[in-house]
Design goal:
Blueprint lengths: L1 H14 L11 E8 L6 E16 L6 E8 L5 E8 L2 E8 L13 E6 L4 E16 L1
Parallel strand pairs: 2-5, 2-6, 2-7
Antiparallel strand pairs: 1-3, 3-6, 4-5
């Protein structure tokens, strides 16, 4: 499992290296973390439009995500709310309204907490996923 975190870190180091294509584009690196609340169970909906998606269960937070994306292209969003003892986590990218597909510009590494019961639903429209839960 540590291999997944190392892989994600290496991936983003390579992506945002000065010699990379990202340095020449309007690339963004966004990190977001959601702490564990009172929920005993979480329902997670992931909608990933295009690119590479890495999911593992190696965080102490409820969820932690690192997004690599190009400015104005498939901007990511992660929201969380609780209703009673159930948490609702939504991780999604906006749809590409320009009709441009460039999977190399959109890479996500999402880590979920393995100690919290989680019902995960994933919609992957185009791209690759590496899931280790």
């Amino acid at each position: 499992m540590k291999k997944s975190i190392v892989t994600c870190c290496l991936l983003f180091t390579i992506l945002f290296n000065g010699n990379s294509i990202y340095a020449q584009s309007d690339s963004k690196l966004l990190k977001k973390s959601i702490e564990i609340g009172k929920a005993k169970e979480v329902r997670t909906d992931i909608s990933f439009f295009s690119g590479e998606l890495f999911i593992n269960s190696e965080t102490d937070a409820l969820a932690k995500c690192i997004y690599g994306y190009r400015d104005g292209f498939l901007r990511p969003d992660m929201t969380y709310r609780e209703v009673g003892s159930t948490g609702y986590l939504s991780v999604e990218s906006e749809e590409n309204k320009k009709g441009i597909f460039n999977d190399d510009t959109n890479k996500w590494c999402l880590s979920l907490n393995k100690s919290v019961k989680n019902n995960v639903s994933i919609q992957l429209k185009a791209g690759d996923a590496n899931i280790d839960l």
